[in-house]
């Protein structure tokens, strides 16, 4: 799954892929024509000069040469969280469909600061299988920008979407951050929580050294969504980890807005599966 720093980058990448497909097709046509003794000039139909591609000039391209004697040190991290827990804040495309039986996608959203955010992903649903996660920001649905939309308009739009094809442009969890902590000799990582809200940090602990903050809610453990789980189940997941634990957190004021309309029954049906390594 590709991640992009901006929506524009994702769209340009799509155009580049189309251009590559055209070049491949024309090359194949040239090979076929050559086998029949014909001659096709494919270069003239593409970009004859560099100036014809995005207006670039040769002077705009410079060869990178490292300074003489410069050494770039290779550093290996002491530890690192699983790739499924990493937040890249990039933009990715997700294509799915509606469940043939229920006609649903299996997600709900909330509007925050003129943006649309995923607040519920149904366990085993289409959205969960497609890779949508709690806290993701939806930028587009089927090419339509959702900036400024409210929850009602977004849900109505999804209901009217083609059941066989629903495409999302999504930014990866912009309100969340991850911190990897190392367990001490007693198996603790250095913070206390109640109802998933961090309320105390142990002095000189791994959590304190790595920047864990109070008044933040735990949303994931090693990339696994824990929203809606009891403290006992969250603690069990943490204890099951061997040496390190990567926690994903969200500020309280954002979290409260995200879950304000989620009842206990919905939280129980949220997707809590472990992330798939890609």
Number of helices: 7
Can you give the mean pLDDT?
84
The fraction of residues in strands falls at 15-25%
Considering DSSP H and I runs of 4 or more, what fraction of the residues is helical? 25-40%
Structure in words:
By secondary structure, the chain is of the alpha+beta class. The protein is 26% helix and 23% strand. It is built from 7 helices and 12 strands. The strands form 3 sheets. Strands 1, 2, 3, 4, 5 and 6 form a 6-stranded antiparallel sheet that branches. A 4-stranded antiparallel sheet has the order 7-12-10-11. A two-stranded antiparallel ribbon has the order 8-9. Strand 8 (191-194) and strand 9 form a beta hairpin. 26% of the residues are buried. The model is unreliable at 48-56 and 74-78 (pLDDT under 50).
Brief summary:
The protein is α+β, with helices and mostly antiparallel strands and 278 residues long. 26% of the residues lie in helices and 23% in strands. The protein is built from 7 helices and 12 strands.
């Amino acid at each position: 799954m590709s991640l992009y720093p901006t929506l524009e980058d994702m769209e340009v990448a799509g155009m580049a892929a189309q251009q590559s497909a055209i070049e491949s097709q024309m090359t194949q046509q040239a090979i076929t024509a050559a086998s029949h003794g014909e001659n096709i000039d494919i270069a003239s139909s593409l970009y004859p000069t560099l100036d014809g591609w995005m207006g670039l000039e040769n002077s705009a391209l410079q060869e990178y040469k490292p300074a003489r004697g410069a050494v770039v040190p290779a550093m290996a991290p002491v530890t690192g969280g699983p790739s499924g827990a990493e937040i890249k804040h990039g933009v990715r495309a997700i294509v799915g469909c509606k469940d043939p039986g229920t006609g649903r996608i299996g997600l709900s959203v909330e509007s925050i600061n003129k943006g649309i955010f995923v607040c519920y992903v149904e366990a085993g649903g289409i959205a969960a299988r497609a890779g949508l996660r709690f806290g993701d920001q939806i930028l587009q649905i089927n090419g339509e920008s959702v900036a400024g939309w409210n929850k009602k308009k977004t849900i109505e739009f999804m209901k009217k979407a083609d059941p066989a094809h629903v495409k999302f442009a999504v930014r990866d969890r912009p309100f969340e951050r991850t911190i990897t902590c190392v367990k001490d000799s007693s198996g603790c990582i250095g913070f206390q929580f109640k109802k998933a809200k961090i309320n105390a940090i142990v002095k000189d602990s791994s959590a304190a050294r790595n920047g864990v903050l109070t008044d933040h809610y735990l949303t994931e453990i090693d990339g696994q969504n824990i929203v809606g789980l009891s403290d006992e189940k969250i603690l069990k997941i943490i204890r099951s980890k061997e040496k390190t634990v990567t926690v994903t957190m969200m500020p309280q004021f954002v979290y409260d807005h995200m879950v304000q309309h989620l009842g206990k029954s919905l939280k129980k049906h949220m997707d809590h599966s472990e992330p798939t390594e890609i």
